[in-house]
Design goal:
The chain is α+β, with helices and mostly antiparallel strands. The protein contains three helices and nine strands.
């Protein structure tokens, strides 16, 4: 598991409020966790309660809601967990995937992840030769 810290901007879904955080990027955490008081201040409304197992093995039930996250110019709507007040904000895998970013553990930076890969035509099982060539040409142009 690789970690680093990055600035993250969270916006309310209506775009009226925002806050800037320094979050721990944690690829071992599935969800993004922010102290509950900050999410309430942002106007995030809890939508349901979910059970989570923390790194130390402790099990908790916390509220989740939705906000818009922006990191390094990439933005997405995402789930956020109403975390404990004394905990550092955590940027988790679910949000990173939505942002189309991944952690390069060697260079310790976030890198863009392409939505399409050159190997996509191989996934078209049973496509005729002309369709495969057309798909390859599309990927080269893109």
């Amino acid at each position: 598991m690789a970690t680093l810290r990055r600035p993250i901007r969270l916006d309310s879904l209506d775009g009226k409020q925002s806050l800037q955080l320094d979050a721990l990027v944690d690829t071992g955490s599935f969800v993004t966790i922010v102290p509950a008081s900050l999410l309430k201040e942002l106007g995030v409304v809890p939508t349901e309660k979910v059970g989570l197992e923390l790194a130390g093995g402790r099990r908790v039930a916390w509220d989740i809601g939705e906000a818009r996250a922006t990191v390094d110019g990439h933005s997405t709507a995402t789930l956020v967990v109403f975390g404990e007040e004394d905990a550092d904000p955590v940027l988790g895998r679910y949000t990173l995937t939505g942002l189309r970013l991944d952690l390069d553990p060697v260079r310790k930076i976030l890198v863009p992840v392409p939505l399409f890969r050159r190997s996509a035509p191989r996934l078209i099982v049973g496509a005729d030769r002309r369709a495969r060539e057309s798909m390859r040409a599309y990927i080269r142009v893109w």
